[in-house]
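Hello,

Our lab assistant flagged a job as stuck in the queue for most of the afternoon. It eventually completed. Since we weren't sure the result was trustworthy after the delay, we are filing this so someone can double-check. Below is the sequence as submitted and the structure that was eventually returned. Let us know if re-running is recommended.
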Amino acid sequence: MDQEDVCQNTADAADAMDADETGSFAAFNFSDKIRKGVEAAGFKVPSPVQRDAIPYVLAGRDLIAQAQTGTGKTAAFALPAMQRMTLDRGIELLVITPTRELATQVSGEIHRLGRFAGVETGTVYGGQSYGVQLRMLERGVHALVATPGRLLDLLRSGKLAGMRPWMVVLDEADEMLDMGFLDDVKEILSHVKEEHQTLLFSATMPDPIRRLAAKFMRDPVSVRTVEDQAATKADIRQIYHVIAESEREVALVRLLESLRPRKAIVFCRTREETDRLQEALSSHGFGARALHGDMEQRQRNTVMNGFRQGTSDILVATDIAARGLDVPDVSHVFNYHLPFDAKGYVHRIGRTGRAGKKGTAITLVTPREFETIKRLERGIGTKLEGQPVPSLKQLRVNRRALLTEALESQAISPNGRVLVLELIANGADPVDVATKLASKILDQHAESGPETIGLAQTQLDQLRQQQGRDYGGRDRRGGGPPPRFQRGGGRGGDSGGGRPPPRPAPGRPKGPPFHKGRPPREG
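-- returned structure --
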């Protein structure tokens, strides 16, 4: 792009900003073909990051955008990039993402938005044949989305020697930092010799990311959609349950049986735990699939396609494998274990409550880890809601309520009416007919597990009040012993014996600290 083009783009962007009072994509003066893609995608009103970033991208400015995941960042750079493409010089847009799943997701979104404009997209990542990817590049693409490792291999081997993108996008830059890809990104940028526009999108701005921007970007403008972060927290209900270490699995099963989430992601720390938990959930009749870094790319694609299409409704995943995933209609996120830091927690729960929808994030903790919950709350500026795990009695009540709600909205089919009328005509009592039908439905998922799991509500409240108290004794103000787990005797005021929660060994911390460094690369 020469200076005249940039000046014209600046003028166009200024017009767009002046016209933005309409609050629609029409304000950006996109071409008819781009607008058609926007309409086909169902976009009505620009998100905050789209509203703020698109005018600057159209103007040719380098841009640093700080916004949470799930806020429409892909369209924020893809739409103005496609508007300015000439489609006659090979790869014009290069997007670098930290994971294979995110690369596939971003490429699909660009294709969806640009299909009417003739924009060809491609993806390169590790785990797929070099031959397949090279043939795709030979056919020609205008927008290339890549992970750092495979892209660097292709650049070093000279396979992309003729690549001359005029726009480079670093997507989820802080995640690439956490995964150890920052040096790879620097080397990639050094291979892009020609003058180009650089866009950097990141949820957070640690110092290494700022230094990267200072080295490779020219007078970048900054966009920070703080309102997105507040909206994300407001749309996600955050709950924790205090349980014994040995109760994690039964607690998760009980919660899934009680809530029956539409679509859920369960986060684990290790690959081994992911596989084991997926098998356990499947044995209880849940449609669960595992996702982790030991799986071949074909397996990962199959799992993700099934989760998106609804053939499975629970994804059990490690943090790294699930980074950047954007799956519509995830109603619940479960932290089977606490993440390693507050940033990891925010990233996990950001898989739900997206695009203005409500979501629920549930975390399982032991009494020993409760201090970590308090540190987490200080780190994210939000108080989590402590709740008891539903008892078997409450589970039965919840399931009856769900069935009642389903029956109220159930349409009556001709066959169903005929069947019931025939049974009554043959002497069956109407109440018996209804009771048997309800029993058949409820018995399809028989309740299992102990009557109670974890701390009751009164014990949770007591634990909350002991903020400065050591589990092994009294705090500086004095006071009694810590709350105890009840043994099979109900909760919330019900009587019953007790057993103490696990206590830390002398001199050991009460909970795992939130590490400031990079988490282990398990996924």
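-- support follow-up --
The delay was a queue issue, not a problem with the job. The result is valid. Residues 467 and 506 are 19 Å apart (CA to CA). Residues 1-22, 227-232, 468-523 have pLDDT under 50 and may be disordered.
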